[in-house]
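Researcher: I'm preparing a figure for a lab meeting and need a structural model of a single chain. I don't have an experimental structure, so a prediction will have to do for now. The sequence is pasted below. Please return the structure as tokens so I can convert it later.
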Amino acid sequence: MFDFYITALILGLCLSAMATGIFISMKIFHIPDITTDGSYTLGAVVTAICITKGWHPLVALPVVMLIGAFAGTITGLIHTKLKIDALLSGILVMTALYSINLTLLGRSNVPLLNVKTIFNSFSFFINENYQQLFIILILVLMIVFSIAYILKTDFGLSMRAVGDSPSMTKALGINNDAMKITGLAIANSLTATSGYLVAQYQNYTDINMGIGIVITGLGSVLIADTIIARFSIQNVILQLAIVAMGCIIFQQVLAFALTLGIDPKLLKLITAVFVLSIVSLTRLSSLRK
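Model: Understood. Here is the structure written out token by token.
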């Protein structure tokens, strides 16, 4: 039973990069980016292609991040240059990515059982769960501190200002469109990183693994947003750490549901109900205030 919850903890940490990406697109730029479903799978697909060809997983990581950033850039360009609604832009790119991912992968599922992954390339612990947990913790900490550093720079402050008051930043000479495109590129780069991690953790890449994953990320961000608002947390590092924690809480809730004997077929339904509950409670709390 303990190992079951450790597994949920590791999976939550793997998905926390995606949650951080959604935090950037949704909470900073107020853009509901559905590209997530496609860029998550894209990250897993590129990972499978690279490591099955003998690439070291660490060499594959920057490639995955760049391709994820490219997907986000396309969404940003469609939204800003063609003046198409952000939600529709994401849906269009997500739909196109399904065909691209299937073409790149060549089939619907690729096992990663006998290849070198990020989790077996190093040896820190004998216990496999502790080994995986240690590696993913290092990667998540690197992501959190890197994004926090970016958001504290002048560039990061400009991005946050664009999300808060685009008319003011435009008057100050900041290129709002460029900032949005960059933000979406960073967000989808992080999402692809989650696909990279999950594919190696689960030892397979599936063409449908990204379907509905945006709901998981959204639920995690909403959990984090509730905690951040409740305690009025302003520190960027703490906010990002709480986003990662929100992802862990989300996965632990799903793990608890499975331990109760709930049919795994209903997991997506439980996920939807859980996210709806978080949104409803948050809205009701705001109305009371």
